[in-house]
Amino acid sequence: HVLEHGKLHERSAIIKQLAGQIVQMSQQKFASNVVEKCLTFGGPEERQILVNEMLGSTDENEPLQ
Predict the structure, then answer these.
(1) I want to staple 3 with a disulfide (CB 3.0 to 4.6 A). Which of 17, 37, 50, 53 is the partner?
(2) Which residue range(s) make up the domain with 29?
(3) Structure pTM?
(4) Has residue 65 been placed in a domain?
(5) What would the pLDDT profile of 4-28 be if each residue is shown by its tens digit?
(6) DSSP labels, 43-61
């Protein structure tokens, strides 16, 4: 609910808190819905963080293990 109707700073805080767990969450039935909402309602910066994680890059452009 907060991801859809919350303020930008609230959505951003939630998404940044979930960063690092996105790949695992996207493979779970209900958690994948949260990942989808993050991508839909997150700002450009937050979406980029999530996409980079899904594609396997980090801040240092090193592949995730």
Answers:
(1) 37
(2) 2-55
(3) 0.74
(4) no
(5) 998 989 999 998 899 899 989 988 9
(6) -HHHHHHHHHHHHT--TT-
